[in-house]
UniProtKB/TrEMBL annotation:
Gene3D superfamilies: Death Domain, Fas. Pfam families: CARD (PF00619). Residues 13-96 form the CARD domain. InterPro entries: CARD, DEATH-like_dom_sf. It comes from the Eukaryota. One of its GO terms (biological process) is regulation of apoptotic process. Transmembrane segments: none annotated. This is CARD domain-containing protein.
Length: 104
């Protein structure tokens, strides 16, 4: 369908991994971890492992955990980023070359 190109907020987590790691704040990461755990996307053990890291390593761990879990997990994380930090979400969604949601 052609409305895919009109949809905003469709970006690949893999394509914005570096930008996510660079820009996400520690409080946003903590909230994202809580939400991912609450939704069952990550386990308590995965959450505890990520919480032991510094901010940049924690961001790496969060995005990589979610990427390994597939497209549903990626969609959840994107939704949570949009809810928790709309400014970060807009920063991640700035690539004009991407018109449709990629698999992750």
């Amino acid at each position: 369908q052609s409305d895919q190109n009109a949809t905003i907020g469709e970006f690949s987590l893999q394509s914005v991994r570096y930008k996510f790691i660079e820009k996400v704040s520690k409080p946003t990461l903590e909230t994202l971890l809580d939400l991912l755990l609450q939704k069952g996307v990550i386990t308590d053990e995965e959450m505890q492992s990520a919480q032991r890291e510094n901010r940049a390593q924690q961001a790496r761990e969060v995005i990589d955990m979610v990427l390994r879990k597939g497209s549903e997990a990626c969609a959840e994380l994107k939704t949570f980023i949009q809810e928790v930090d709309p400014f970060l979400y807009r920063q991640l969604d700035c690539s004009p070359s991407q018109g449709s949601l990629q698999s992750c």
